[in-house]
Amino acid sequence: MTIDILYFVVALAVMTGLAVPMGMWLARTFTGTRHYLPERWTYRLLGVDPDKESGWKGYALGLVLSNAVMMLLGYALLRLQLFLPLNPLDLAPQPPHTAFNTTASFITNTNWQSYSGENLSNFSQMAVITFLMTTSAATGVAACAAFIRGLGRKSADTIGNFWVDLTRVIYRVFAPICFLLALFFVWQGMPQTLDSQVVASTLEGTEQAIRIGPVASLETIKHIGTNGGGFFGMNAAHPYENPTPLTNVLHILSMLLIPSALTYAFGTMLLRRRQGWVFFGAFMVLFVSSLTVMYSAEQYGNPLLAAVGVQQDLPVTDTGGSMEGKELRFGISDTSLFAVTTTSATTGSVNAMHDSLTPLGGGVTLWGMMLNAVWGGDGVGFINLIGFAIIAVFLIGMMIGRSPELLGKKIEAREVKLTMLAVLAHPIILLGFTALAVLWPGTADNLNNFGAHGFSEYLYAYASGTANNGSCFCGLGANNPFFNTTIGLAMLFGRFLTLLPMLAVAGSLAAKRTVPASAGTLDTATPTFAVVLVSVVLIVGGLTFFPALALGPIVEHFQMLDGQLLPGNIQ
Amino acid sequence: MSEQISIIKGELRPVLVSALFFMLLTGLAYPLFTTAVANVLFPYQAQGGLIRVDGEIIGAELIGQPFTTPGYFHPRPSAVAYDAMAGYGSNLGPTNPKLTEKVAERVQAYRATNGLPEDARVPVDAVTASASGLDPHISIANARLQAARVAKARDLPQERVLGLIAEYSTPRQLLLLGQPRVNVLKINLALDALQRQ
Asked: What is chain A's alpha carbon radius of gyration, rounded to the nearest angstrom?
């Protein structure tokens, strides 16, 4: 227990330490005026002038169109899998509804997988999955760069050049980190080969076919880009995706690297470092509270299993806790930190079966995706937090009777309306689709668990899709036309209905004059503001989602403590 | 309107070219280059950490196998019977009656197989299915409880088997990370090697 807490402290300290150099590097990437040689070649190939910036509409146009074409390209490659190379196992192509869901999933940085990774050829794993993982994450970071620029500029009508941001993020940030980290991962035991399977004859004389492939190169961008889609169906619980506890913590740090560094990059670019740390602190408070609940719930274990003779307390030679759906090398602590990180940083990879987490542990993962602003995914998490900050200054302004300001800009009706559009889109899509799925005839046949936990399976699917997370309560059989279509739409709406209004906010803020700070200005770079911000996140998130959580994980928690099994006859 | 059309026209080339170009670069060049370098630096790991005995592949260090005979250490339960082409967990929720029934059966079976008393509590990892269904490890407590059975089946002194467990226990990585554990395939290989001597 002590060692687990020490582990959490060290991991979070390392993350904080990494946020500074990485944030400085990101700030230089976003603001540098020099174009390096490979970048100049790329701009010439694309036919763009790197020094010509555009307003938020032009920026958004490039973003949406390029994402649409990449999605179509990925769809075509998935459907043509049989005719493309590196498919010695003759794996069949995905049917149309699955391929739509998969490409929607990967272009929105969600990485929900209704298919099992074992059924993609090595070519598809590289040319579709690895490709879309890189570009979707770069899109998110680029949007965040434009957003921060918009916040910082005065009376400006441009917020940046999408092609420059996209190219730079891939060349200067993703490429070097992913390549080096991939080699480190291989050293720790991850395969990186073009072979598709090996057949072993086991010690007891049976045959065991083992799927292998180019795993490490996919794994690095999966986490650096807060993507989360696994090479294998079992994602980062699979020993080949996550061979050692060291790779596990590197996965965790990779997921948090860019989202946490963006707060520092923001502080650096706007010369408001204290403000950056205030946002960082607000993230951290929310994160640590989630982790505390998760770890306690999982280590406490499942009383229903204790009753049939299972040892779940903590002798030194055993993990204790609730181990159904967990890997022994990670135990409770490494699993808890991973699960909280992946749902907070909306990555969506898993190193345990979230469906088998204890009710409160599962509830914490849902909570992270519902708030969608505790670190959040690459770029968009930070944008969401600023959205909440705008709401916070607006509420404070209403309470104390001052016109609200953020970062020296007046927040007016247009910004508040656009932000509310983004803030409201999230719960409407999430809860709306959940309600639709619950009512839709026949969907309950796809559940693996029933009662309160069955409801959680529905809720998790749409929380994951809308928040662009991608993890699952995987008991839900989602590879069918209804779920593929609705979750696919939830992912696309969830991504673009929050990203585009916030880009509009950035454009609108960039056009404003900066108001000099006066005695009447509310200082947002203070711990007090961090408290207000956390409260706004909790109240908006809490009030919106509490009823749904009460029907799922909370009721199940009390059933479990009370020793009640779900009635078997519902099935 | 014509101005907007010309803006979209201007975006057409970068939109089309960037999709193809970044697909080739990040989807093919990057993974292929990484494959080449990784296979030069770490050929054993890059090929999946395959263990060979007398030139024949008998398994992978990281992928568990479904041992059932008494003379071998047994792995954790698996929802997919250690099918390494389709690893998966049970996805049973904590209050699902199927979970409790399965675990209760496994507890009984574990006690019977290892000659434990009726009321002995069983280490949690021995009776719960792992996430991947391919977990290569068991806890040290679990291994120790199996030692008597393994020793008896192989006609070895129990201390010898316990010693082997100590020898094959992996501690926490860097003192902090992960759980102390025993790799089932490796210790079973060691048992075979011991008997051959």
From this structure: 23
Judge if B149 and B121 occupy the same domain: yes
Q: Helix or strand or coil: residue A409?
A: strand
Which are the contacts of B32, defined by CB distance < 8 A and separation ≥ 6? Answer: A126
The total domain count for chain B is 2
Whether B52 and B41 share a structural domain: no
Distance between CA A477 and CA B12 in Å, rounded?
39
Q: A47-85 burial, b if ≥16 CB within 10 A, otherwise e?
A: ebebeebbbbebbbbbbbbbbebbbebbbebbbebeeee
Residues spanned by the domain of B120: 48-196
Whether A569 shows a pLDDT value over 50: the answer reads: no
Is the CB of A331 less than 8 angstroms away from the CB of B178? yes
C-alpha A524/C-alpha A409 separation (Å) is 12
CA angle B160, B166, B167 (to 5 degrees): 85
Specify the DSSP class assigned to residue A214: B
Share of chain A above pLDDT 70, in %: 99
- Bridge partners of B6, per DSSP, are none
What the block records as the tokens of A374 is 């505790």
Q: Are residues B24 and B107 in the same domain?
A: no
Which stretches of A372-463 are assigned E, i.e. beta strand? 405-406, 409-410
**pLDDT for the residue A566:** 60
Q: Do B59 and A208 touch (CB under 8 A)?
A: yes
Same domain, B75 and B6: no
Q: How far apart are the first and last CA of chain A?
A: 39
**Per-residue pLDDT tens over the stretch A455-501:** 999 999 999 999 999 999 999 999 999 999 999 999 999 999 989 99
Q: Is B52 exposed, middle or buried (0-12, 13-18, 19+ CB in 10 A)?
A: exposed
Scanning every residue of chain A, which has its alpha carbon at the shortest distance from the alpha carbon of B95? A565
Cα(A38)–Cα(A41) distance, integer angstroms? 5
What is the structure's pLDDT at B24? Answer: 97
CA trace torsion A411, A415, A419, A421 (10° rounding): 150
Q: Which residues of B touch A568 (CB under 8 A)?
A: 97
Residues B88 and B70 in one domain: yes
DSSP, residue by residue, A265-289: HHHHHTT-HHHHHHHHHHHHHHHHH
Partner-chain residue, chosen from B95, B99, B179, that has the shortest CB–CB distance to A328: B179
- Does the distance separating the beta carbons of A200 and B177 come in below 8 Å? no
- pLDDT at site A1: 77
If asked whether residues B24 and B55 sit together in one domain, one would say no
For Cα atoms A159, A160, A163, give the angle at the middle one, nearest 5 degrees: 145
Same domain, B54 and B111: yes
For the segment A404-431, what is each residue's pLDDT rounded down to a tens digit? 899 889 999 999 999 999 999 999 999 9
ipTM above 0.85? yes
Instruction: List alpha helices for chain B, DSSP H.
Output: 2-22, 30-41, 43-46, 97-113, 124-127, 140-154, 158-167, 184-196
Do residue B77 and residue B149 come from a single domain?
Answer: yes
